[in-house]
Amino acid sequence: MRWLLSLLFALVLLALPYAPAQAFLGLKNKVPQTKQEITLSFAPVAKKAMPAVVNIYARQVVRVRRRVPLLFDDPFFRDLFGGGLTFGRPVERVRNSLGSGVIVTPDGYIVTNNHVIDKADDIRVVLSDRREFHARIVARDPRMDLAILKVETKEKLPTIPIGDSDKLEVGDIVLAIGNPFGIGQTVTQGIVSATARTGIGRNGTQLFIQTDAAINPGNSGGALVNMKGELVGINTMIFSRSGGSNGIGFAIPSNLVKTMLLSVREGGRIVRPWAGVYLQEVTPDIAESLGMKRPAGALVVSFHPLSPMKKAGLKPGDVIIAVDGKPIGDVREFGYRFAAKPVGTTARLTVRRGERRLNMTIDRIAPPEVPPREETLIRGRNLFAGLKVANISPAVAAELDLPTRVWRKGGVVVTKVLGGPAARAGFRRGDVILEVNNVRVHSVKDFTALLDRVRVIHEVAVNRGGDILKLLR
Fold first, then answer.
1. pTM score, two decimals?
2. Do residues 100 and 29 touch, judged by C-beta distance below 8 A?
3. Which H or E element spans position 4?
4. I need a labelling partner for 14 at 20 to 30 A (CA). Which of 37, 92, 194, 437 fits?
């Protein structure tokens, strides 16, 4: 009897590929029955999207001095001199980087990653039909790792329509198009693994679409396309131990791209909406203390005096749980949802206050330049000569990508380092000078007046990315 049951089970397994057996067992999938089903392909989508995906070649000229080892690389001298001495005139060397981009308007606007064209002296764009153009940088946002280029041509260029990335769902099929390893334009296919991945990236403040479509070096700035042939993301990074694709790739959502493109075309630069609020993650302990079933949302801690959220009636202790109907998982997701529409629009916030739920409308405004920046070049015979400094306003903080924890503490910010003693001392763009000789600095006026009085500078306190550094002389 046992052998008879085994035989019947084997016959059932053999029958599985056939439609009647599948129907009997309640299975939905079936073997293609017609020629049209057999020849199903992603080719129509790829054919529609590929002409608008370009290769980007960025060229940077750097000046370096020759370096030679000392005394056969003796450890003592290596520790003392860093392994060698430089000599002679600087030699120009060329660094080349390779990436991809997406044409989004017929008149030649191209979206790519900021890291693809960062510090480039010359940018060339090559289309799939081998046409080549020089491109200029129109705007860039290092924080979001986006850049917008422009090529000049009288011909209408092929484009990809920008889709709604908020409509993506986990499991949707997507194509990644780019130029991996410089081998030429390549299409890979996968699914959406996550639609709102946060806590990763260069600064941990972004939100990404995650996909298992193969993304490799050279794909950066290329297109993530849905089955309608719409751009739903800009491929930007991978998680990999080998440098190649391991099925964990990330793309910047197209809704953010759409907002930044609109901002550039209307105002000539990227302007992110400004909320003017300091938020905190809702931890399990905080959620329990607030009577929440699970930790989610963003807890309001404090406001900038000019914050549109303060003006709308939010209060410290409120928890923002949704923006424009989209649930908020954490502070980073709030930042994305709020920035996903341009300045001049409004955001609908759902807020938990105690046991109540409130709906509020917030104006998306540009970061205000209050106080005025009063950018000043420091001259003379002092440690700061060669610096350009400015008062810190929300607008300046946004331009320099200063974290809230930095600019809330005051001081004056370094906007440029032009050389001189300041460059030799190691000052960097974005450093915030807090104190000189233990005297607090509140404004550019305070700072320049202090330098006029002080003859010898023996101590400087600088806030660099949230870390307080002290220069002692």
1. 0.76
2. no
3. helix 2-15
4. 37
Could you count the other beta carbons within 10 Å of the beta carbon of residue 287? Answer: 17
| DSSP element (H, E) containing 425 | helix 420-425
**Encoded tokens for 325:** 């109907």
Q: Which long-range CB contacts under 8 A does 403-412 form with residues at least 24 apart?
A: 403/465, 403/466, 404/278, 405/466, 406/432, 406/463, 406/465, 406/466, 407/432, 408/278, 409/434, 409/463, 410/434, 410/440, 410/441, 410/442, 411/441, 411/442, 411/463, 412/441, 412/443, 412/444, 412/446, 412/447
Structure tokens given for 351: 């807020």
Cβ-Cβ contacts under 8 Å for 144 (sequence gap 6 or more)? 114, 206, 252, 256, 260, 272
* Residue 442, both tokens: 């509140």
Please identify which residue in the block is written with the tokens 């490799």. Answer: 216
Contact 258, 231 (CB under 8 A): no
Residue of 193, 220, 307, 443 with catalytic role: 220
Indicate the DSSP class of residue 365: B
Q: Is 134 a catalytic residue?
A: no
CB contact at 8 A, 219 and 179: yes
Q: Which of 115, 193, 263, 307 is catalytic?
A: 115
- Residue 208 CA to residue 165 CA, distance in Å, equals 10
Please give the torsion angle defined by the CA atoms of residues 259, 215, 62 and 402, in that order, rounded to the nearest 10 degrees: 40
The reply to whether 145 belongs to the active site is yes
Rg of the chain on CA atoms, in Å: 28
Q: Which residue in the list 145, 212, 318, 330 is annotated as catalytic?
A: 145
Q: At what angle do helices 331-339 and 254-267 cross, to 10 degrees?
A: 50
Look up residue 44 and give its two tokens: 């129509």
Give yes or no: 442 in active site. Answer: no
Q: What value, to the nearest 5°, has the Cα angle with vertex 236 and ends 127 and 341?
A: 95
User: One-letter amino acid identity for 284?
Assistant: P
In the 3-class helix/strand/coil scheme, how is 176-194 assigned residue by residue?
EEECHHHCCCEEEEEEEEE
